[in-house]
Write a sequence for this structure.
């Protein structure tokens, strides 16, 4: 009965002598390994993948020595033409002191395949099958480690398709997706086997190119990618034209870690876009950024991120009439140990050009929402937080994802978050800006135009874009009420906003006279030193606890 039970079992069942020679093999074992000759007398290890034979012998010896079952995962060859199977083998010492063993093996190939598949899904982009951001980070770290050891450099290219958005918006996502698939197949053709091509979002690709460090090498590879993207794409019955802008950073000249390299490749890519698209720009710290670009400050910035030198202050925004706090604007601070505070007007423009703004901005957004939640729980009423969003961050493919994460992570409501963008952000590519804004408003998040009046102040966009709030720049407030011109500008902005059903926040209000002037013209909100300076979250919590609004009076009679 035992024998027929073993024969019936779907598993491998073998009896072995102490040397691992097969004394008995169940029919299933014979079928599975497709044995043409008798297995009896042969060694079990011969059926096993050569690299795993020692491990098998060790497991058998262990089972005999300890008289405890010993388990091992092995690959078994099933016939010459057949694939390897993954087996989970358990070996037991036979009762008595014959020195014999019993081994039972279960086919776990399908489980193993699922595991491999899951791992692939977590590290690859579903659309193109290319490595995703997570795997890219891994490979970049490895490339850095390897380059450090070998002394051979490598380069990182950030590639962005020009004109992809038009295809996606105009012809729909299925066409956009198909285009991305064909484009990535073309890119692979332009690269060498040792290069890594990853897709990290929408139409953004990153390429790691080992050994490509001379400008001739870089030009060659990038030139090939760019020309491949320029040939028309025949996709779903459409003939489509896109191009590629590429930015390159070289290890170690342009960065010695993966964050710096990626940020610099990205900055160079933006420059390629500015210089007319369809071209390749190699990072050059002297050309990127403003004339007053400060190299030592920039180097210190990367370090400062790692050292946690950035933090956030919050400035109250109050109701002009009641002076009750409605919300807070988040203001970023950088305290350099031993050197003091660096004003944001100095470090934000640099972060804009070297790409760090994406990292800093993402942190500021998430941290602001989380912080707001703690403010609300002390104030016991819904407040809002108003976060500055830089133009570059606003256009980033992952921005909406980040927005969702910030809201989900903190548990605040969408309408408790306000994003401050500038007129410049809107005017660079109004079509794209409009599309992003609608997606933001769909999440109930409101948009404020910061520093209003200092940029284009286009009346057309005020009508067209979903803007909830205008923030009058401090420049127009500071000489109120004396300056007739500033008074006229403030009057005009306030009346315009009322007619367009927008609220107005007056920034930089320092005196009671300014406050009075604005109040008389129905300005809804005030922000300035008069009603509250930027302060630490701790001070905000103390303030909110102290000015807790008393419960509404209840008639006790
Ligand atoms: P902003 O968005 O216009 O911020 C308002 C600025 O006015 C802040 O300067 C604030 O401290 C200052 N301020 C507020 N009330 C008064 C007042 O009554 N009198 C005077 N004299 N100043 C007042 P700050 O903190 O130096 O920030 C400067 C700029 O840096 C901000 O201008 C904003 O454009 C940028 N910034 C700050 N934090 C961030 C951030 O997290 N992300 C981005 N992208 N930009 C930021
Ligand atoms: Ca602002
Ligand atoms: Ca402002």
């Amino acid at each position: 009965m035992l024998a027929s039970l073993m024969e019936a079992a779907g598993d491998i069942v073998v009896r072995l002598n102490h040397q691992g020679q097969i004394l008995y093999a169940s029919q299933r074992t014979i079928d599975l390994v497709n044995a043409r000759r008798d297995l009896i007398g042969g060694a079990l290890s011969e059926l096993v993948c050569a690299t795993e034979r020692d491990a098998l012998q060790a497991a058998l010896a262990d089972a005999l020595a300890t008289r405890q079952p010993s388990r091992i995962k092995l690959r078994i060859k099933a016939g010459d033409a057949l694939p390897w199977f993954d087996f989970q083998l358990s070996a037991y010492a036979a009762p008595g002191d014959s020195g014999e063993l019993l081994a039972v093996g279960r086919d776990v190939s399908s489980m193993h395949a699922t595991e491999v598949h899951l791992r692939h899904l977590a590290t690859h982009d579903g659309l193109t099958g290319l490595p995703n951001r997570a795997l890219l980070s891994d490979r970049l770290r490895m490339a850095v480690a390897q380059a450090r050891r070998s002394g051979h450099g490598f380069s990182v290219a950030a590639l962005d398709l020009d004109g992809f958005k038009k295809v996606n918006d105009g012809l729909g996502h299925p066409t956009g997706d198909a285009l991305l698939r064909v484009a990535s197949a073309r890119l692979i053709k332009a690269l060498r086997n040792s290069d890594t091509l990853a897709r990290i979002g929408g139409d953004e690709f990153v390429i790691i190119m080992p050994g490509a460090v001379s400008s001739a090498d870089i030009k060659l590879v990038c030139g090939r990618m760019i020309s491949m993207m320029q040939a028309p794409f025949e996709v779903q019955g459409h003939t489509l034209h896109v191009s590629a802008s590429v930015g390159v950073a070289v290890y170690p000249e342009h960065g010695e870690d993966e964050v710096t390299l990626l940020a610099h490749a990205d900055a160079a890519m933006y420059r390629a876009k500015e210089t007319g698209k369809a071209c390749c720009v190699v990072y050059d710290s002297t050309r990127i950024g403003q004339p007053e670009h400060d190299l030592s400050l920039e180097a210190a910035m990367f370090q400062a991120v790692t050292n946690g030198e950035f933090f956030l202050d919050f400035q109250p925004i109050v109701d002009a009439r009641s002076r009750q706090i409605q919300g807070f604007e988040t203001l970023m601070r950088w305290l350099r140990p031993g050197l003091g505070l660096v004003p944001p007007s100095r470090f934000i423009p640099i972060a804009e050009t070297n790409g760090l703004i994406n990292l800093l901005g993402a942190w500021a957004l998430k941290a602001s929402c989380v912080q707001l939640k703690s403010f609300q729980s002390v104030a016991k009423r819904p407040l809002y937080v108003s976060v500055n969003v830089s133009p570059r961050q606003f256009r980033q493919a992952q921005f909406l994802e980040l927005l969702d994460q910030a809201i989900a992570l903190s548990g605040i409501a969408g309408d408790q978050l306000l994003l401050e963008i500038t007129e410049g952000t809107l005017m660079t590519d109004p079509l794209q800006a409009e599309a992003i804004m609608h997606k933001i408003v769909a999440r109930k998040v409101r948009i404020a135009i910061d520093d209003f009046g200092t940029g284009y102040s286009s009346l057309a966009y005020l009508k067209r874009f979903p803007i909830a709030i205008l923030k009058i720049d401090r420049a127009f407030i500071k000489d109120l009420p004396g300056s007739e011109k500033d008074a006229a500008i403030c009057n005009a902005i306030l009346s315009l906003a009322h007619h367009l059903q927008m609220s107005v926040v007056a920034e930089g209000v320092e005196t009671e006279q300014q406050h009075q002037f604005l109040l008389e013209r129905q300005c809804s909100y005030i922000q300035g030193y008069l009603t509250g300076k930027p302060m630490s979250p701790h001070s905000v919590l103390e303030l909110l606890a102290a000015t807790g609004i008393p419960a509404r009076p209840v008639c006790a009679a």
